[in-house]
């Protein structure tokens, strides 16, 4: 028996390879819109949750707080977001999209949708099962309680 996981037969390595491939392909495609994949994700989160805190953006984007600050700084410099000034009463700063940010997000969304469609097409009828498995694995690795089995509703990020 080998003393290590065989990368050719490892689910973890397969997921990592998929993630790296998806990220590099999405980054390349999003350059036309002047965005990276993490920047797109932040713009999409801000459209759905205006005023969300930096720490919640970082958590939902699966990046460290300092990384999120760099992403937000770049988006603010480009004029895609506005960050409220801190007040003595509030420790957090609300962040919202500008009209330029909404426009950039709309431009980039078609590109991201192409990748989503590719993944959904590959999943076929097993999409809900795959999605539930991915969430269960995430919950197990983070120590969170397992989520209940989803119904046949669209996956997060998929608009009706």
List the helices and strands and how they pair.
Blueprint: H1 11-30, H2 37-48, H3 54-61, H4 65-77, E1 81-83, E2 95-97, H5 99-123, H6 127-142
Antiparallel strand pairs: 1-2
Quickly describe the structure.
The chain is mostly helical and 160 residues long. The chain is 59% helix and 4% strand.
Cα distance spanning the termini: 49 Å
Stretches with pLDDT under 50, minimum 5 residues: none
The helix/strand order is HHHHEEHH
Mean pLDDT: 87
* Secondary-structure content class: mainly alpha
Computed CA radius of gyration, to the nearest angstrom = 18 Å
- Strands, total number: 2
**DSSP helical segment count:** 6
How are the strands of the largest sheet arranged?
A: 1-2
Summarize the biggest pleated sheet. 2 strands, antiparallel
Anisotropy-based shape: globular
Helix content: 55-70%
Tell me the strand percentage band: under 5%
What does this structure look like?
By secondary structure, the protein is mainly alpha-helical. It has six helices and two strands, in the order H-H-H-H-E-E-H-H. It has helices at 11-30, 37-48, 54-61, 65-77, 99-123, 127-142, and strands at 81-83, 95-97. Strands 1-2 form a two-stranded antiparallel ribbon. Helix 2 crosses helix 5 (99-123) and helix 3 (54-61) crosses helix 4 (65-77). The radius of gyration is 18 Å and the shape is globular. The mean pLDDT is 87.
């Amino acid at each position: 028996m080998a003393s290590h996981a065989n990368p050719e037969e490892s689910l973890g390595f397969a997921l990592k390879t998929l993630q790296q491939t998806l990220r590099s392909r999405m980054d390349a495609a999003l350059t036309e819109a002047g965005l990276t994949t993490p920047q797109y994700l932040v713009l999409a989160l801000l459209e759905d949750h205006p005023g969300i805190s930096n720490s919640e953006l970082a958590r939902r984007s699966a990046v460290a707080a300092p990384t999120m600050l760099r992403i937000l700084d770049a988006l603010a410099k480009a004029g895609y977001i506005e960050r409220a000034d801190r007040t003595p009463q509030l420790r957090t700063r609300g962040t919202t999209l500008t009209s330029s940010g909404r426009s950039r997000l709309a431009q980039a969304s078609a590109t991201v949708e192409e990748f989503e469609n590719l993944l959904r097409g590959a999943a076929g009828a097993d999409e809900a099962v795959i999605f539930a498995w991915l969430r269960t694995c995430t919950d197990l690795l983070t120590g969170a309680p397992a989520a209940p089995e989803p119904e046949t509703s669209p996956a997060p990020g998929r608009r009706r």
